[in-house]
Amino acid sequence: MDFKLKIWRQKNAREKGGFRTYPINDVSPEMSFLEMLDYLNKQIIESGGEPVTFEHDCREGICGSCGLFINGRPHGPMRRTTTCELHMREFTDGDTIVIEPWRSKAFPIIKDLVVDRSSFERIMHAGGFISVDTGSAPESNSLPVSKNNSDKAFDAAACIGCGACVAACKNSSAMLFAAAKIAQYALVTQGKAEAKERVDKMVRQMDAEGFGYCSNTYGCEFDCPKGISIDFIALMNREFFSSKVCRQIPGRYTRKV
Amino acid sequence: MQKLDSKIPDGPLAEKWKNYKAGLRLVSPANKKKIEIIVVGTGLAGSAAASSLGELGYKVKVFCFQDSPRRAHSVAAQGGINAAKNYRNDNDSVYRLFHDMIKGGDYRAREANVYRAAEVSNDVIDHFTALGVPFARDYGGTLDTRSFGGVQVSRTFYARGQTGQQCLLGTYSSLNRQIAKGTVKMYPRRDMLDIVVINGKARGIITRNLLTGQLERHSAHAVVLATGGYGTVFYLSTLGLGSNATAAWSAFKKGALFANPSFIQIHPTSIPVLNDYQCKLTLMSESLRNDGRVWVPKKKGDKRHPTEIPEEERDYYLERRYPAFGNLVPRDVASRAAKERCDAGYGAGDSGLSVYLDFKDAIGKQGEDKIRDKYGNLFEMYEKITGINPYRQPMRIYPAGHYTMGGLWVDYNLMTTIPGLFAIGESNFSDHGANRLGASSLMQCCGDGYFILPNTLSDYLADDIRTGKIPVDEKAFEEAEENVSERIKQIMSVEGKQTISSFHKRLGKIMWDHCGMKRDSEGLKKGLELLDQLEEEFWADIRIPGSEGELNQELEKALKVADFFEVGRLMCEDALQREESCGAHFREEHQTETGEAKRDDKNFAYVGAWEYRGKGEKPGLHKEELKFEYVELKERSYK
Ligand SMILES: Cc1cc2nc3c(=O)[nH]c(=O)nc-3n(C[C@H](O)[C@H](O)[C@H](O)COP(=O)(O)OP(=O)(O)OC[C@H]3O[C@@H](n4cnc5c(N)ncnc54)[C@H](O)[C@@H]3O)c2cc1C
Ligand code: FES
């Protein structure tokens, strides 16, 4: 297969970036999208150029490192698929493929297709945990959790922290990301004790990082490679409004109805 | 030659850890605040250790090469994590878990370490539950378990097919709590490139900041390596592409012994190579062999579509060769059997390098829904990658490099032969002998990090309360930094024509062909020769675009691959000296008449620990004799 690739190139955070076009031939439909980029990079390096920098590690859709904006969609055209799981057989021979980094104020570009997602880390530092010291845990089965809640908690916990939700959102909102963690802990017995402080702190941090608010376009859910449900945002909002502190903060986290 | 002292405490097996721990020294809370600890790695082992040490009040610095600690390759573990809870009342116990691991490891692991790993396994599950890890549960709200290869009890706790991810997010959450408290400082996007030894003690590391290219000096009173496995020496493996041996290798070069480097597990069920640019083999969980039947055509080179090959023309070779265990033989046995059929010309697919894993019978008997319920996410993953629907036609699978049982030699305290340098998780050698049983790595990593290391490390640090901060302007730091800087300059100065990946790929093939599933003396020697040749070509013809003072992924790769040549050689040397077959290490010369592994307990019941003797010098071998007081050494038979 042959393609025309339009790729965002940017030397570093300071310099301005722009698109460059690369023709690429003899791509096998069996290649993954990132293998296709490896193949391109091999050609670029061998002809004396600088390869395209992009982030990746596990290459099996679980570490959340990879994340490219492909033809206007985070992780490309297939639903519930990360960039590393996407394969070239999903494209048509001769296509032009546009490849960009995530674009959001809270994810500054580092180089080419690599962005800085440390804002996600700081949201987690703010409250993404249950406060329990090693060695102080009771016997597991003394903390029963209904199968239903536990399964739902798993669905929320399946988030890989890739940032596609932010990239998909016209407001660059990180609501789905934060909600997934908040919901996971709100659904299990162990997480209830500090649920109120958790939601308050994480929401404040999200705000401080410059992520936008949610206006219910559902783009995040649609493009989430792990299919995290937008219902968790509703759950987070409920948690938020039932937390005492929330009354002091203007209602920008409400879903517009 | 230094004498290897494993420091295994006296006393009955079941009492060893309890008694030993009671005698370990402590550091007072006021003194802990003055002591710094470096932890390299944020997988299960590293993040568990760092968070526990932070909770205790030490000042901890943690490093990883990814942009977030949550992306360590532990995240990819699928199947589960073992514990001896005996929740199913199937007569499981700490002793039974211990026994299964010793046998599964083909009697090449230390009894005391394995017993301890089994002993703390229950605490790991309790801690994860308290941290909100969503393990699978039964309708009554209690934890569910499942069975895993090589054992007869149900002791594997799991979170669908994403147990590693869920456990890692658990340890990551405790890490975040400590980061927020200020006891732990996180340094992401760093490659550790050297270890700093002052007056014989590990006192710091040199890292490269991957964003700026800057070399950094970090000092501490002790250093803990939790840097994972080096299966990427095969190029194609089930590991993350960034996985490497560099951290452990730098320790080796500074005097830490490296144990059993050739013990690498080849996992039987991964998606085979489908194109020439493939750089990763995706694992299909071992659990699939519970219902899938493995076969190849009876006729050599039969290229018909698998659904067109009638029942009587299929060779279910595992069921044929191992009637007692059938498709559920351990990993090493299943991998070799697949290779044997493919090498003999019966393999499936265009390359002939794959076998079928067929669910037709299971779907027929249990219905498609039931199979979807059990393996839905794996089937989906298979279809995404191959474009083939495994409900309609058999999967194609082939063995792939997966897990390194070998690693840095550690004593009972998990300390290497460099005082103050500890190694935990997959980066050490200690608990899995020559073959690892499924679901026991996550267990070991967490046990090491949460419950063992914090105790033994405190005992070591009890001597350091008056040392004061370690200055980074010491000569040893300067030398180490200089060393790294030289290596980088050397790499950047080659200005050849070929990419790093093309060398890595060729290196991986040499290792796979000569030091992979089957080994023999001639092949290993040939492998050594080929490695030398390729290494020479590497240093003459690599091309690294860009500069060292920026984010430069080619340079990062080059530093790792350069070490893999040396690791590969040590693997070959180790495989050569071990004139027996055991676990994953299969020497063609040492097999039974029916082609099974033939162990030699009289001469080889030891840990082979290698010492670095300088560039170009042959490394020296030390032997730690393994004593078996509780387990009787038997032939592993699965027939
Ligand atoms: C696909 C797959 C499935 C598996 N399934 C199971 C299973 O079901 N059950 C089970 O028990 N085991 C399983 N295993 C094995 C198990 O996952 C690993 O052995 C274990 O997770 C290793 O954990 P770790 O903490 O030692 O290292 P890792 O999780 O690999 O972490 C290594 C850390 O070290 C850091 N690091 C490495 N080198 C450097 C360096 N030079 N500088 C700085 N940082 C560095 C990395 O950034 C990372 O943070 C599986 C393995 C794979 C590959
Ligand atoms: S590389 Fe890990 S999710 Fe894509």
Descriptive overview:
The complex is a heterodimer of chains A (257) and B (639). Chain A has 257 residues and is of the alpha+beta class. Chain A has helices at residues 33-46, 118-127, 147-157, 164-168, 175-186, 195-208, 219-223, 231-242; strands at residues 3-9, 18-24, 69-70, 73-74, 96-100, 109-111, 114-115. Chain A contains eight helices and seven strands; from the N terminus they run ββαβββββααααααα. A five-stranded mixed sheet of chain A has the order 2-1-5-3-4. In chain A, strands 6-7 form a two-stranded antiparallel ribbon. The longest helix of chain A has 14 residues, at 33-46. Chain A is elongated and about 60 Å long. Mean pLDDT of chain A is 94; it is low at 251-257. Chain B is of the alpha+beta class and 639 residues long. Chain B folds into two domains: 41-263 and 405-639, FAD/NAD(P)-binding domain (3-Layer(bba) Sandwich); 266-402, Succinate dehydrogenase/fumarate reductase flavoprotein, catalytic domain (Flavocytochrome C3, Chain A, domain 1). Helices cover 37% and strands 14% of the residues of chain B. In chain B, strands 5-2-1-9-17 form a five-stranded parallel sheet, sandwiched between helices. In chain B, strands 11-15-14-12-13 form a five-stranded antiparallel sheet. A four-stranded antiparallel sheet of chain B has the order 16-10-18-19. In chain B, helix 4 (94-104) packs across helix 5, helix 14 runs antiparallel to helix 15 (521-541) and helix 15 packs antiparallel against helix 16. The longest helix of chain B is centred in the last third of the chain and has 25 residues, at 553-577. Chain B is globular. Chains A and B meet through helix 1, helix 2 and helix 3 of A and helix 3, helix 5, helix 6, helix 11 and helix 12 of B. The complex binds flavin-adenine dinucleotide and FE2/S2 (inorganic) cluster (FES). Residues 40-46, 63-66, 72-74, 76-81, 163-164, 190-192, 226-229, 238-239, 244, 246-247, 283, 402-403, 425-427, 439-442, 445 of chain B line the site of flavin-adenine dinucleotide. Residues 56-59, 61-66, 82-84 of chain A line the site of FE2/S2 (inorganic) cluster.
